[in-house]
Amino acid sequence: EQLIESGGGVVQDGSSLTLSCIGSGHRFSTYAVGWFRQAPGKDREFVAGIDWRSYITTNDFLEGRFTISRDNAKNTVDLQIHSLKPEDTAVYFCAARLLGYVSPSRDSGDYPLWGQGTQVTVSS
After folding, report:
1. Which own/partner contact pairs does 106-109 have at CB distance under 8 Å and 24+ positions apart?
2. What pLDDT sits at residue 63?
3. Which candidate, 73, 36, 42, places its Cα nearest to that of 57?
4. C-alpha 56: how far from its chain's center?
5. Distances (CA, A) of 78 to 35, 43, 51
6. What are phi and psi of 108, to 5 degrees?
7. What is the pLDDT of residue 100?
8. Least crowded by CB within 10 Å, which of 5, 42, 72, 83?
9. Dist CA 114 CA 58 (whole Å)
10. Tell me, what's the pLDDT at 75?
11. For residue 14, what pLDDT is reported?
12. Sign of CA dihedral 107, 109, 113, 118
């Protein structure tokens, strides 16, 4: 099983971006998936998570500019980021819990499977 992120790039302050995570394996649709980000010199931060029913867990310390969604038919989990700011600059990772039918976790240690990450750079 593996995860592959895409959609990162260099974007302007105030713009929007959609990151995609595609998973392999026939059980991916049952896994909780989380999006995390890591800025230079900072700890990895939980952004949002989604379970198999598309119930969402958010980071209450982040503004409501992040929208997570999934398409189980395509094995994808997307993260839309609205009104991007320079402080959103980070490597964004998706991760899967590899346990079927559980809720997402805000703890990165609960995710055994990670993608390689996609860089988002917001220029002012």
Report:
1. 106/34, 106/46, 106/49, 106/57, 106/59, 107/46, 108/34, 108/36, 108/44, 108/46
2. 77
3. 36
4. 12
5. 9, 22, 13
6. -60, -25
7. 87
8. 42
9. 19
10. 97
11. 97
12. positive
Mean pLDDT by 10 residues, the chain (124 residues): 97 97 94 97 97 95 92 97 96 95 96 98 95
Q: Residue 60: CB partners within 8 Å, gap ≥ 6?
A: none
Is the CB of residue 71 less than 8 Å from the CB of residue 21? no
Tell me the three state secondary structure of residue 31.
strand
Per-residue pLDDT, 9: 97
**What's the pLDDT at 2?**
95
> How far apart, in Å, are the Cα atoms of 49 and each of 11, 27, 33?
24, 17, 6
54-65 per-residue burial string, b: 16 or more CB within 10 A, e: under 16: eebbbbeeeeee
Query: Positive or negative CA dihedral for 54, 64, 22, 115?
Result: negative
